[in-house]
Design goal:
5 helices; alpha+beta; two-stranded antiparallel sheet; about 160 residues
């Protein structure tokens, strides 16, 4: 699912954030993961990590974060609308605080809408709910827009 940049939540302290990062890194990269704290500190977690998939782990870490409100979405940029549908919004750097992306019947659809806009705005630096590889078509559009005179030829040669 992830193993690239993924949102784990907002935490009250650097220590809590570092712990959340370490657990996700261990799930992704195994015992070779570069962690903030000694790998021996995670003996209990290592045993339990085999029982959950990556998506479940991320959702669990987000639920433990301070930004998680009971009844809110498990996805970044998604909130439960008062009429029961799911609203997608993305933060703006300039002007209004958030930009409305639409209402969706399914929570996952709203998360995809958020991710798509995040990728359009930030390309490979976007923090997404789902693996960035799911948005290869959007990344191709962004790359074509940013580098219209460049073409990728076989064997990775960049020619213009």
């Amino acid at each position: 699912m992830f193993c690239s940049q993924v949102y784990l939540g907002g935490f009250d302290s650097e220590h809590q954030a570092a712990l959340a990062y370490d657990v996700a890194a261990i799930k992704c990269r195994g015992e070779e993961a570069s962690t903030n704290f000694d790998m021996n500190d995670y003996a209990q977690e290592l045993a339990a990590l085999d029982a959950v998939n990556k998506e479940e782990l991320v959702l669990s870490l987000r639920r433990q974060s301070k930004g998680f409100v009971k009844g809110s979405s498990k996805f970044r940029g998604v909130t439960r609308h008062q009429k029961g549908r799911w609203e997608a919004r993305i933060g703006q750097l300039v002007g209004r605080k958030y930009r409305y992306l639409g209402l969706y019947d399914r929570e996952e659809e709203a998360a995809v809408a958020y991710d798509t806009e995040a990728v359009r705005q930030k390309g490979f630096d976007a923090v997404t709910n789902f693996d960035l590889s799911e948005y290869a078509d959007v990344l191709a559009e962004v790359s074509l827009f940013l580098f219209p005179y460049f073409y990728l030829f076989p064997y990775g040669q960049l020619v213009y």
